[in-house]
Specification:
The protein is an alpha/beta fold and 281 residues long. The chain has one domain: Spore Coat Polysaccharide Biosynthesis Protein SpsA, Chain A (Alpha-Beta Complex), CATH 3.90.550.10. The protein contains nine helices and eleven strands. The strands form three sheets. A seven-stranded mixed beta sheet has the order 3-2-1-4-9-6-10, with helices on both faces. The longest helix is centred in the first third of the chain and has 16 residues. The chain is globular, with a radius of gyration of 18 Å. The structure holds manganese (II) ion. The site of manganese (II) ion has 5 residues, from loops.
């Protein structure tokens, strides 16, 4: 792997699989079939591993520092989301200075070259579109290697979305910065509102560099289809077409981009997704 690889993380939620397939198929369409990518997985499900293999998606099986024992039960439904915090520790990425992490609920619409040449000091992320920045704490504390640290909460700041993150892995490995960060995470998991995204925003704060919204573009923006490079279905997933909860976000280009997403599916996957659509209520 020499170019900047694209990283995905999955857990045993079966709905991740069609999302991941479309993400990788669309990546290969815009960046070429040889575009380096890697899927990180901490579980043990043989059928999931087989389906990655059928799709020629290389898989990094990884035992996380923030494991099921460390992460509160109420976050286990989205436990795969925390894996992105540890990418700097993946043996498969040794010697790789940068990677582009993407959620599996993305679809690549246009080339990534202008993004992959960027070299952020720590990481670069786009602004979160819906969630305002809010937290109850003025600062958070943790202990690492016998020393106490206090992290002031970064006011004023918008929240960055962790759906697409260009990580400077080498910077995180230097001085074991990654373990320092993971100590902060482990000791503050009870004080976060928004999963891994809070941990990145709280700890790195103003050190996070801003990406233009075209690199993490929700499908409900009116210019999503014409300008988005990476579409992020961060609200309703492409098959979530009924639940009233999401009515406000099924607007503008949502319907058009959902059709585009479905165009990447094979016949049997298409049937499965249509069954999910009928069940969405
Ligand atoms: Mn997402």
């Amino acid at each position: 792997m020499s170019a900047v690889p694209v990283l995905f993380c999955v857990d045993d939620n079966p709905r991740y699989l069609p999302l991941l397939r479309v993400a990788v198929r669309s990546l290969r369409e815009v960046q070429g079939v040889d575009a380096p990518c890697l899927c990180v997985y901490a579980g043990n499900d043989r059928s999931l591993l087989d389906s990655l293999e059928r799709e020629h998606i290389p898989c990094a099986r990884y035992t996380p520092v923030l494991d099921k024992a460390a992460i509160p039960q109420r976050f286990h439904r989205a436990i795969g989301a925390f894996l992105k915090l540890e990418l700097a520790l993946l043996p498969e990425l040794v010697g790789i200075p940068y990677c582009l992490y993407c959620d599996v609920d993305v679809m690549f619409l246009r080339p990534l070259d202008d993004l992959l040449i960027r070299r952020p000091r720590y990481m670069a992320m786009s602004k979160e579109q819906t969630a305002p920045f809010f937290h109850e704490h003025e600062s958070l504390s943790y202990t690492w290697r016998g020393k106490d640290y206090t992290v002031p909460m970064p006011f004023p700041i918008w929240t960055f979305s962790s759906g697409v993150v260009l990580f400077h892995l080498q910077r995180l490995r230097n001085y074991d910065h990654i373990h320092n960060f993971l100590a902060f995470c482990a000791q503050n998991l009870e004080r976060i509102g928004n999963l891994d995204q809070s941990l990145l925003n709280y700890f790195f704060g103003k050190r996070i560099e801003k990406l233009e919204s075209r690199w993490n573009c929700p499908p409900y923006r009116c210019e999503a289809a014409s300008e988005g490079h990476i579409i992020h279905f961060h609200g309703p997933k492409p098959w979530e077409i009924r639940r009233p909860l999401w009515n406000d976000l099924r607007i503008n280009d949502f319907w058009k981009l959902r059709e585009k997403w479905k165009s990447f599916l094979e016949a049997d996957e298409h049937n499965m997704v249509e069954a999910w659509e009928k069940a969405d209520a």
